[in-house]
Design goal:
Rossmann fold, alpha/beta, single chain, 7-stranded mixed sheet, 15 helices, globular, 411 residues, 17 strands
């Protein structure tokens, strides 16, 4: 994947692109590992670029997808109560507003079945497409039908032959992971009924720029979408944005609803969002140069704070070993000398070390049984859920350190 001609071309429109920021050598966001694996650890150059032609924000280089999504993939959506409720509402919206009689629903990246379970429970015909075998098996255990393959036009044709065309094609926090988006959108165009809808959500570029949440940029997030860039991409396949719905998930996401051109009315929300992006100069180079400077300031402030606490002899641990924390730790150069360990409830991560920075990941009980002075909240997008649960930590005199939108200690 390394030749220059490939690296400098936009993944959507093939125009030349230049990185505006480099995050340096970066390991895989979910690449938690054991000490004997340190010497062989995989890194790639994580540079981000903005295409002035199609307006797509993207990573210039991506690791091979087999490196990222496999039988030991460490992320299970169903582990969050908040996300389970979110996907239940998502499914209800689709069922209530978009489905005809006897519908067929397809979800790309169905993970452990957290969304499709809602359709399965109502006996709605469905199919999940999930390349990571371990999470696909978890979905099957919930009565969700799924295939373990990467989605392409040929898989779409096979599904149409065996099950017919889809009334709804859904995805959540998946589309932005896929470098070969044209293949996927071609597949969607094949799979979708003429009257069908596409509905997907991903972290929104506007929120990342506004909150300086640069941890949304990691190996799995090839793209950060905007309404403008999505309109451009799907427009090439005869589809258009018909609705857009902001979401609180993942620190600020956007749900895009698309259909074949002329089959549905376009809501005012679409027009307003496109105008908002124009007014806030999402299409201008200086917006991204400014974002780079904000990232650097945020990095320097966080490192300074942690070094200061270290000098004072304070105990600092991390809370939640997220993929996003990999970007923070490596970009900021933070290791076990500043953060003692990271507490996490996911068994597959416990006893391992964080990618690149090699901070121990320990069970949640290690946090609860011996509260630190400070905890860095890496899962800041779940802050409400976490803080409600961790009242005892505050009562013990513990304090949270946050870094989005500003680096600060919560008093």
């Amino acid at each position: 994947m390394g030749d220059d001609s490939f690296m400098n071309k936009c993944l959507i429109c093939r125009e030349e692109i230049k990185p505006f920021i480099s995050f340096g050598k970066m390991p895989l966001g979910n690449g938690f590992l054991l000490p004997e694996q340190f010497a062989e650890e995989y890194y790639f150059d994580m540079d981000a670029a903005f295409c002035s032609n199609c307006k797509m924000f993207q990573l210039v280089q991506q690791p091979d997808e087999e490196q990222m999504f496999h039988e030991n993939y460490a992320f299970f959506s169903g582990s969050s109560v908040f996300m389970a409720k979110h996907f239940q509402k998502f499914a209800e919206d689709v069922i209530k507003n978009y489905l005809p009689d006897d519908p067929f629903v397809v979800e790309l990246g169905s993970n452990d079945g957290i969304m499709l379970k809602n359709f399965a429970d109502q006996k709605i015909r469905h199919l999940g497409i999930e390349p990571s075998r371990n999470v696909a098996e978890a979905a099957k255990g919930k009565g969700v039908e799924c295939v373990t393959e990467f989605f392409t036009e040929s898989l779409a044709e096979k599904i149409v032959r065996e099950k017919g065309q889809a009334d709804a094609f859904l995805a959540a926090n998946v589309m932005c992971h896929i470098p070969y988006l044209h293949k996927v959108v071609k597949g969607i165009a094949t799979l979708l009924k003429p009257t069908g809808i596409v509905m997907f959500e991903d972290p929104y570029l506007g929120d990342v720029l506004k909150k300086i949440s640069y941890d949304q940029i990691y190996d799995e997030h090839t793209f950060l979408f905007s309404a403008t860039s999505i309109q451009y991409l799907f427009g090439q396949y005869g589809m258009e944005l018909v609705d857009i719905i902001p979401q609180k998930t993942h620190g600020g996401s956007m749900r895009y609803v698309l259909s074949n051109k002329g089959t549905r009315d376009i809501t005012e929300a679409v027009t307003e969002q496109l105008s908002y992006e124009k007014e806030n100069k999402f299409d201008r180079k200086d917006t991204y140069d400014n974002f780079k400077q904000n990232c650097e300031k945020s990095r320097d402030k966080l490192v300074e704070l942690l070094k200061d606490l270290n000098t004072q002899g304070k105990r600092v641990v991390g809370y939640a070993a997220t993929s996003k924390s990999t970007t923070i730790l490596n970009y900021c150069g933070i290791g076990p000398e500043l953060i003692e360990f990271i507490s996490d409830t996911t068994p597959i991560k416990q006893g391992k070390y964080t990618p690149g920075s090699h901070i121990p990941v320990r069970p949640y009980s290690d946090f609860k049984d011996n509260y630190p002075d400070y905890a860095v909240l890496f899962a800041w997008n779940h802050a409400e859920e976490i803080m409600a649960k961790e009242q005892d930590f505050l009562k013990s005199g513990g304090k949270w350190i946050v870094f989005v939108p500003d680096v600060k200690i919560l008093e």
